[in-house]
Protein backbone atom coordinates (compact mmCIF):
# COMPACT_ATOMS: atom_id res chain seq x y z
CA UNK A 1 0.00 0.00 0.00
CA UNK A 2 1.15 3.57 -0.61
CA UNK A 3 2.68 4.93 2.66
CA UNK A 4 0.24 7.81 3.21
CA UNK A 5 -2.69 5.46 2.51
CA UNK A 6 -1.25 3.00 5.03
CA UNK A 7 -1.08 5.80 7.61
CA UNK A 8 -4.64 6.85 6.78
CA UNK A 9 -5.92 3.34 7.32
CA UNK A 10 -4.07 2.93 10.65
CA UNK A 11 -5.53 6.25 11.77
CA UNK A 12 -9.05 5.22 10.79
CA UNK A 13 -8.74 1.92 12.67
CA UNK A 14 -7.50 3.44 15.94
CA UNK A 15 -8.89 5.34 18.89
CA UNK A 16 -5.57 5.40 20.69
CA UNK A 17 -3.00 7.39 18.71
CA UNK A 18 -0.17 9.40 20.25
CA UNK A 19 1.94 11.96 18.40
CA UNK A 20 5.54 12.80 19.33
CA UNK A 21 7.09 15.74 17.50
CA UNK A 22 9.73 18.40 17.29
CA UNK A 23 10.79 21.59 15.57
CA UNK A 24 10.03 20.22 12.06
CA UNK A 25 6.31 20.38 12.90
CA UNK A 26 6.52 24.18 12.95
CA UNK A 27 8.81 24.91 9.97
CA UNK A 28 5.75 25.10 7.69
CA UNK A 29 4.55 27.89 10.03
CA UNK A 30 7.74 29.80 9.30
CA UNK A 31 9.65 28.93 12.50
CA UNK A 32 13.11 27.57 11.65
CA UNK A 33 14.22 24.30 13.24
CA UNK A 34 17.73 23.72 14.58
CA UNK A 35 19.39 21.08 12.41
CA UNK A 36 17.98 21.39 8.87
CA UNK A 37 20.07 23.08 6.18
CA UNK A 38 18.19 26.34 6.78
CA UNK A 39 17.99 25.74 10.55
CA UNK A 40 19.47 27.93 13.27
CA UNK A 41 22.57 25.76 13.72
CA UNK A 42 23.69 26.62 10.21
CA UNK A 43 23.56 30.37 10.80
CA UNK A 44 26.53 32.29 12.16
CA UNK A 45 26.60 33.66 15.69
CA UNK A 46 29.34 34.68 18.11
CA UNK A 47 28.59 31.49 20.07
CA UNK A 48 27.04 28.18 18.99
CA UNK A 49 23.26 28.15 19.67
CA UNK A 50 23.57 25.17 22.07
CA UNK A 51 25.91 27.26 24.18
CA UNK A 52 23.68 30.36 24.13
CA UNK A 53 20.66 28.25 25.10
CA UNK A 54 22.41 26.70 28.10
CA UNK A 55 21.76 27.48 31.74
CA UNK A 56 25.37 28.55 32.30
CA UNK A 57 25.20 31.05 29.44
CA UNK A 58 21.86 32.40 30.69
CA UNK A 59 23.41 33.09 34.10
CA UNK A 60 26.76 34.46 32.84
CA UNK A 61 25.69 36.46 29.78
CA UNK A 62 21.98 37.25 30.15
CA UNK A 63 22.11 40.26 27.75
CA UNK A 64 23.50 38.07 24.97
CA UNK A 65 21.07 35.27 25.81
CA UNK A 66 18.03 37.54 25.52
CA UNK A 67 19.28 39.13 22.27
CA UNK A 68 19.38 35.69 20.62
CA UNK A 69 16.22 34.50 22.35
CA UNK A 70 14.14 37.53 21.29
CA UNK A 71 15.39 37.38 17.69
CA UNK A 72 15.34 33.65 17.10
CA UNK A 73 13.10 31.83 19.57
CA UNK A 74 10.04 34.09 19.59
CA UNK A 75 7.63 34.06 16.66
CA UNK A 76 4.59 36.10 17.72
CA UNK A 77 3.06 36.08 14.21
CA UNK A 78 3.37 32.33 13.54
CA UNK A 79 0.11 30.46 12.98
CA UNK A 80 -0.63 26.71 13.14
CA UNK A 81 -0.11 24.80 9.89
CA UNK A 82 -1.84 21.68 8.52
CA UNK A 83 0.14 19.38 10.80
CA UNK A 84 -1.04 21.15 13.96
CA UNK A 85 -4.61 21.36 12.62
CA UNK A 86 -4.73 17.68 11.59
CA UNK A 87 -3.58 16.58 15.06
CA UNK A 88 -6.16 18.81 16.75
CA UNK A 89 -8.84 17.33 14.48
CA UNK A 90 -7.80 13.76 15.40
CA UNK A 91 -8.12 14.57 19.10
CA UNK A 92 -11.56 16.12 18.54
CA UNK A 93 -12.60 13.00 16.63
CA UNK A 94 -11.64 10.84 19.63
CA UNK A 95 -8.72 9.12 17.87
CA UNK A 96 -5.68 10.85 19.33
CA UNK A 97 -4.96 10.80 23.07
CA UNK A 98 -2.04 13.23 23.32
CA UNK A 99 0.51 15.35 21.54
CA UNK A 100 3.95 15.14 23.12
CA UNK A 101 6.13 17.93 21.83
CA UNK A 102 9.67 19.20 22.15
CA UNK A 103 8.47 22.52 20.75
CA UNK A 104 8.09 25.63 22.84
CA UNK A 105 5.96 27.70 20.45
CA UNK A 106 2.42 26.92 21.70
CA UNK A 107 1.13 26.23 18.16
CA UNK A 108 -0.53 22.90 19.02
CA UNK A 109 -2.76 24.62 21.58
CA UNK A 110 -3.38 27.47 19.11
CA UNK A 111 -4.66 24.84 16.65
CA UNK A 112 -7.07 23.48 19.26
CA UNK A 113 -5.15 20.52 20.73
CA UNK A 114 -5.96 20.08 24.41
CA UNK A 115 -3.76 17.29 25.74
CA UNK A 116 -0.35 18.74 24.90
CA UNK A 117 2.70 17.66 26.88
CA UNK A 118 5.40 20.28 26.45
CA UNK A 119 8.63 18.51 27.31
CA UNK A 120 10.73 21.64 26.90
CA UNK A 121 8.31 24.25 28.24
CA UNK A 122 6.84 27.23 26.43
CA UNK A 123 7.86 30.73 25.34
CA UNK A 124 4.34 31.84 26.28
CA UNK A 125 5.09 31.43 29.99
CA UNK A 126 7.70 33.39 31.92
CA UNK A 127 8.30 33.90 35.62
CA UNK A 128 10.25 36.29 37.82
CA UNK A 129 13.17 34.42 39.34
CA UNK A 130 12.81 36.40 42.57
CA UNK A 131 9.08 36.69 43.36
CA UNK A 132 7.60 34.17 40.91
CA UNK A 133 5.25 36.65 39.19
CA UNK A 134 3.90 35.40 35.84
CA UNK A 135 4.53 37.21 32.56
CA UNK A 136 3.35 36.49 29.01
CA UNK A 137 5.51 36.56 25.87
CA UNK A 138 4.86 40.29 25.35
CA UNK A 139 6.80 41.17 28.48
CA UNK A 140 9.89 39.64 26.88
CA UNK A 141 9.20 40.99 23.39
CA UNK A 142 8.61 44.53 24.61
CA UNK A 143 11.55 44.70 27.01
CA UNK A 144 15.06 45.83 26.20
CA UNK A 145 18.14 43.99 27.43
CA UNK A 146 17.44 41.67 30.35
CA UNK A 147 13.68 41.67 31.13
CA UNK A 148 12.97 42.69 34.73
CA UNK A 149 10.00 42.16 37.01
CA UNK A 150 8.33 45.02 38.88
CA UNK A 151 10.19 43.68 41.96
CA UNK A 152 13.54 44.02 40.17
CA UNK A 153 14.12 40.28 39.62
CA UNK A 154 15.06 38.80 36.25
CA UNK A 155 12.19 37.29 34.24
CA UNK A 156 13.11 33.81 33.00
CA UNK A 157 11.27 32.02 30.19
CA UNK A 158 9.70 28.68 31.23
CA UNK A 159 11.84 26.96 28.64
CA UNK A 160 14.10 24.04 29.47
CA UNK A 161 17.65 25.17 28.68
CA UNK A 162 20.54 22.81 28.00
CA UNK A 163 21.88 21.54 31.38
CA UNK A 164 18.42 21.87 32.95
CA UNK A 165 16.25 18.89 33.86
CA UNK A 166 12.86 18.10 32.39
CA UNK A 167 9.72 18.24 34.50
CA UNK A 168 9.30 14.73 35.97
CA UNK A 169 5.52 14.79 35.96
CA UNK A 170 5.41 15.67 32.25
CA UNK A 171 7.99 12.96 31.48
CA UNK A 172 6.03 10.33 33.42
CA UNK A 173 2.80 11.25 31.67
CA UNK A 174 4.57 11.02 28.30
CA UNK A 175 5.92 7.55 29.18
CA UNK A 176 2.41 6.47 30.17
CA UNK A 177 0.86 7.62 26.91
CA UNK A 178 3.61 6.14 24.72
CA UNK A 179 3.74 2.77 26.48
CA UNK A 180 -0.05 2.32 26.11
CA UNK A 181 -0.64 3.66 22.63
CA UNK A 182 -1.64 1.62 19.65
CA UNK A 183 -0.27 3.91 16.88
CA UNK A 184 2.73 6.14 17.63
CA UNK A 185 3.34 8.86 15.05
CA UNK A 186 6.74 10.52 15.34
CA UNK A 187 7.44 13.53 13.16
CA UNK A 188 9.50 16.63 12.50
CA UNK A 189 12.30 15.69 14.85
CA UNK A 190 15.93 14.71 14.34
CA UNK A 191 15.63 12.53 17.49
CA UNK A 192 18.96 13.73 18.78
CA UNK A 193 17.91 15.69 21.88
CA UNK A 194 17.84 13.52 25.01
CA UNK A 195 16.10 12.50 27.21
CA UNK A 196 13.15 13.46 24.96
CA UNK A 197 14.18 11.23 22.03
CA UNK A 198 14.57 8.23 24.39
CA UNK A 199 10.83 8.28 25.09
CA UNK A 200 10.19 6.42 21.81
CA UNK A 201 11.78 3.32 23.39
CA UNK A 202 8.71 2.95 25.63
CA UNK A 203 6.51 2.15 22.63
CA UNK A 204 5.49 -1.53 22.50
CA UNK A 205 3.20 -1.69 19.47
CA UNK A 206 3.78 -2.48 15.82
CA UNK A 207 2.56 0.72 14.24
CA UNK A 208 5.44 3.12 14.68
CA UNK A 209 5.14 5.80 11.99
CA UNK A 210 7.94 8.23 11.24
CA UNK A 211 7.27 11.34 9.16
CA UNK A 212 10.40 13.42 8.59
CA UNK A 213 12.13 15.32 5.83
CA UNK A 214 15.63 14.03 6.61
CA UNK A 215 16.76 10.59 7.77
CA UNK A 216 16.75 9.90 11.53
CA UNK A 217 18.31 7.22 13.77
CA UNK A 218 14.82 5.65 14.00
CA UNK A 219 14.37 4.97 10.29
CA UNK A 220 15.47 1.33 10.53
CA UNK A 221 13.17 0.66 13.49
CA UNK A 222 9.94 2.27 12.29
CA UNK A 223 7.10 0.20 10.79
CA UNK A 224 6.29 2.97 8.32
CA UNK A 225 8.67 5.71 7.20
CA UNK A 226 7.29 8.66 5.23
CA UNK A 227 9.92 11.08 3.93
CA UNK A 228 8.10 14.33 3.33
CA UNK A 229 6.66 17.53 4.72
CA UNK A 230 4.63 16.75 7.79
CA UNK A 231 1.89 19.32 7.12
CA UNK A 232 1.25 17.82 3.70
CA UNK A 233 1.42 14.22 4.92
CA UNK A 234 -0.82 14.63 7.98
CA UNK A 235 -3.13 16.97 6.09
CA UNK A 236 -3.65 14.31 3.43
CA UNK A 237 -3.94 11.42 5.88
CA UNK A 238 -6.58 13.23 7.95
CA UNK A 239 -8.35 14.74 4.95
CA UNK A 240 -7.81 18.44 5.69
P1 LIG B 1 15.80 19.51 14.96
O1 LIG B 1 16.03 20.87 14.41
O2 LIG B 1 16.94 18.80 15.57
O3 LIG B 1 15.25 18.56 13.80
C1 LIG B 1 14.15 18.94 13.02
C2 LIG B 1 13.84 17.78 12.09
O4 LIG B 1 12.61 18.07 11.45
C3 LIG B 1 14.89 17.55 11.01
O5 LIG B 1 15.23 16.18 11.00
C4 LIG B 1 14.17 17.96 9.71
O6 LIG B 1 14.49 17.11 8.64
C5 LIG B 1 12.74 17.79 10.07
N1 LIG B 1 11.84 18.71 9.38
C6 LIG B 1 11.97 20.05 9.23
N2 LIG B 1 10.90 20.56 8.61
C7 LIG B 1 10.07 19.51 8.35
C8 LIG B 1 8.80 19.38 7.73
N3 LIG B 1 8.15 20.44 7.25
N4 LIG B 1 8.26 18.15 7.65
C9 LIG B 1 8.91 17.05 8.13
N5 LIG B 1 10.10 17.11 8.73
C10 LIG B 1 10.67 18.33 8.85
O7 LIG B 1 14.56 19.61 15.95
P2 LIG B 1 14.18 18.74 17.26
O8 LIG B 1 14.46 17.31 17.02
O9 LIG B 1 12.83 19.18 17.66
O10 LIG B 1 15.22 19.22 18.37
C11 LIG B 1 15.51 20.59 18.53
C12 LIG B 1 15.18 21.21 19.87
O11 LIG B 1 14.99 22.57 19.59
C13 LIG B 1 13.92 20.76 20.53
O12 LIG B 1 14.26 20.42 21.81
C14 LIG B 1 13.00 21.98 20.55
O13 LIG B 1 12.64 22.28 21.88
C15 LIG B 1 13.81 23.14 20.10
N6 LIG B 1 13.22 24.00 19.04
C16 LIG B 1 11.89 24.31 19.07
C17 LIG B 1 11.33 25.09 18.08
C18 LIG B 1 9.85 25.40 18.15
O14 LIG B 1 9.28 25.42 19.23
N7 LIG B 1 9.18 25.61 17.01
C19 LIG B 1 12.11 25.57 17.03
C20 LIG B 1 13.48 25.25 17.03
C21 LIG B 1 14.01 24.44 18.04
Textual characterization of the structure:
- The chain contains nine helices and nine strands.
- The chain is α/β, with parallel strands linked by helices and 240 residues long.
- The strands form two sheets. Strands 3-2-1-7-8-9 form a six-stranded parallel sheet, with helices on both faces. A three-stranded antiparallel sheet has the order 5-4-6.
- Helix 6 links the parallel strand 2 (96-101) and strand 3.
- Helix 1 crosses helix 9 and helix 5 (82-92) runs parallel beside helix 9 (230-238).
- It is elongated.
- The chain binds nicotinamide-adenine-dinucleotide.
- Residues 22-24, 26-28, 31, 33-36, 39, 102-105, 120, 188-190, 192-193, 212-214, 229-230 line the site of nicotinamide-adenine-dinucleotide.
- One of its GO terms (cellular component) is cytoplasm.
Amino acid sequence: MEPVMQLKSWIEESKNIVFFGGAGVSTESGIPDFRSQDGLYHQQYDYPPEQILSHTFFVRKPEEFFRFYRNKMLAPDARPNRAHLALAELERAGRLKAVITQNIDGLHQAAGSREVLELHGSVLRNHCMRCGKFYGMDAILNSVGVPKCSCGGVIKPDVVLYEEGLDMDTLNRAVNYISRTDVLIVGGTSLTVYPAAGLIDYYRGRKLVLINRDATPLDGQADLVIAGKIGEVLGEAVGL
